[in-house]
Amino acid sequence: MTVFAVLVAAGLLSWALRVALITVVPASRLPTRVRAALDHVGPAVLAALLAAGLTRDGGVLALASPAPALLALLVSAGVAWRTKRLAASVGGAMGAFWLLSLLWARLT
Amino acid sequence: VNTMIEAEHQEAVLTDGDRVVLRPVRPDDRALVETVFSSLSAESRRMRFLVPMPRYSNRLLDFLTDVDGTDHVAWLAMSGDAPVGIARYVRVHDEPTTAEVAVTVVDDHQGRGLGSLLVEAVRAAAGRNGFERLLWNVHPENVAAQGLMRALGMSWGYRDGTLVGYLPVDAASPTYAAPGGSPDVTGPPAPTPDVVARLPRAGLSAVADILPVIASTAPFGMLVGVSTGALPIDPVAALTGSLLVYGGSAQLAATTLLDAGAGVATVLLAVLVVQARLLLYGAALEPAFREQPALFRWLAPVTIVDQTYAVATSRGSELADPARFRRYWLTAGLLLGLGWLAAVGVGIALGPVLPVDSPLSIAIPATFTSLLVPRLVNRPAVAGAATAALVTALASPLPHGLGLLLGVAAGVTAASLTPRRKS
After folding, report:
1. By the 8 A CB rule, do A86 and B216 touch?
2. 8 Å CB contact between B169 and B134
3. φ/ψ bin of B87: left (φ > 0), alpha (ψ from -120 to 50), beta (otherwise)
4. Cα atoms found within 13 Å of the Cα of residue B141, Cβ hemisphere only
5. Is residue B349 predicted with pLDDT exceeding 80?
6. Are A23 and B298 in contact (CB under 8 A)?
């Protein structure tokens, strides 16, 4: 399957999720327990994506320069917590990573 | 104390089958009243008192238990030995035939029809005591209360940034569902024509809301473009695909997994879990789509993303009129879609000229971190995120990104099993 075909399939899947609880089965008819479980999907997915990108081989850090990267992610977490702005926290992480990498290269 | 009210004691069934007992608050119920208010989350407290309220003074507790059965009546809902909700009315000082209503439901019991039961109990008491109408001041972000206002058939408008609802005490409430039914508590009430006439044009509101959003999503769009452009795909196909998926984190998950050589089924499963929050957004927006033409109901949801959901719901009841919502939604969706396409296009074009070890390499984990952190607001979210990260890391040797799916499943399970507050 080509990359394009995968993206088209992902697009159709996304559309199905978007209309599912609006047009197919209106949300008001769902049991409370199902609605409660949906609440928990967001944090779990994001934490799993983060862990999948940072680790390999059962928990080894998959980073070229772990110290600057992890510190930069802490910076982005702090900015996100304070400002709730995606652009600010990602920009902050990139700036911090750039500075810390320079420092790290000097120290090691 | 009015002895007739004193004798009342009703058992009711919530929408999920749990039983509660409703009874009037007595002056000696101070401990129970304090339990209800001290167990509320900060957010629920802000919704109830319309301002942040970090703690309760003795004076406030004095007032909350100072019931007299006529000018101030409060009803308490008990689930077993635990108090789970309170509704009250207080006679309005300069409008003696108006009773101001306030409702509190503890976080764990919200969304189960308890609010409507409590309001109906208070309304019946107001009717017996000769009141003509109820007044309810609601925080404009309090979606549950607004749904309840509509279910009760309240007329409403804005005053000083607060949503003010009125209801004749003896009016029939045709949409109010009996205990055990499924009360309609998900959408804002329909505005009266004079309120609509005073609102700004829906298209202009949408432009004002969405322009800063386009600016804030542009770097992320470029990043998605860079990661998609690195795969074997021609630029036009990459742009078409990006527009179809229309979800940055989902596309990033897909391109990361494709790049790592994962199978098609795994990629689509990952897209499914990443996009699962669209179900939530759909559920929250469903009332606004309910009265729309069929074509709009099937096609307009394609522009549901975190940002359009956030801006549309932050407008609250202002968009309750179906035509207004339609104009707002189409304007915001089209503008954001065009902005997103442009950003992804720039990313695809720039990708080949960026150095491999540029700070962009930190942008992907930083994006997931930034989206995750603001959601860690309660114990289930923290437990779910920690479990998901740990299980995903431990399961990383599994092929085809299966570790990720295992991690998500473990995280959702852990979150579901974690109580919202310490027991």
Report:
1. yes
2. yes
3. beta
4. 12
5. yes
6. yes
Determine which of B392, B398, B405 to mutate to test the interface with A (most A C-beta atoms within 10 Å).
B392
**What is each CA distance from B138 to B188, B242, B312, in whole angstroms?**
11, 40, 18
Q: What are residue B89's DSSP bridge partners?
A: B73, B101
CA distance B39 to B28: 19
Q: Are the Cβ atoms of B246 and A11 closer than 8 angstroms?
A: yes
Bridge partners of residue B137, in order along the sequence: B164
To test the contact with chain A by mutation, choose from B272, B372, B377, B416 the residue with the greatest count of A C-beta atoms within 10 A, namely: B372
Please list, in sequence order, all residues whose beta carbon lies within 8 angstroms of the beta carbon of residue B109, skipping any fewer than 6 positions away: B14, B77, B79, B84, B85
Per mean pLDDT, which range of A36-40, A93-97, B112-116, B135-139 is the poorest? Answer: A36-40
- Which whole number is the average pLDDT over B37-64? 75
Give CA–CA dist B224/B348, Å, rounded: 8
Q: Mind telling me how many Å the CA of A96 is from chain B's nearest CA?
A: 9
Residue A25 pLDDT exceeds 50:
yes
Whole-prediction pTM: 0.52
Average pLDDT along chain B: 80
Reply yes or no on whether the pLDDT at B416 is more than 60: yes
**Are the beta carbons of B109 and B85 closer than 8 angstroms?**
yes
Task: Say which amino acid occupies B380.
Answer: P
Instruction: Give the separation between CA B241 and CA B271, rounded to whole angstroms.
Output: 13
Owner of token pair 């909350």 = B64
Nearest to B137 by CA among B48, B63, B227, B29: B48
Sort strands B95-105 and B133-138 into parallel, antiparallel or unpaired.
parallel
The Cα B279–Cα B199 span in angstroms is 30
CA distance A108 to chain B (A): 17
Sign for the CA dihedral angle at B150, B155, B157, B161 comes to: negative
- How many angstroms separate the CA atoms of B149 and B155, rounded? 8
pLDDT in tens, B362-377: 877 887 788 788 888 8
Residues 6+ apart with CB under 8 A from B395: A58, B402, B403, B406, B407
In chain B, what's the furthest Cα-to-Cα distance? Answer: 82
Q: How confident is the model at residue B249 (pLDDT cuts 50, 70, 90)?
A: confident
Check residue B209 and give its pLDDT: 79
CA distance B388 to B398: 15
Q: What is the largest distance, in Å, between two alpha-carbon atoms of chain A? A: 61
Say if CB B138 and CB B185 are below 8 A apart.
no
Query: Residue B38 is encoded by which pair of tokens?
Result: 């001290």
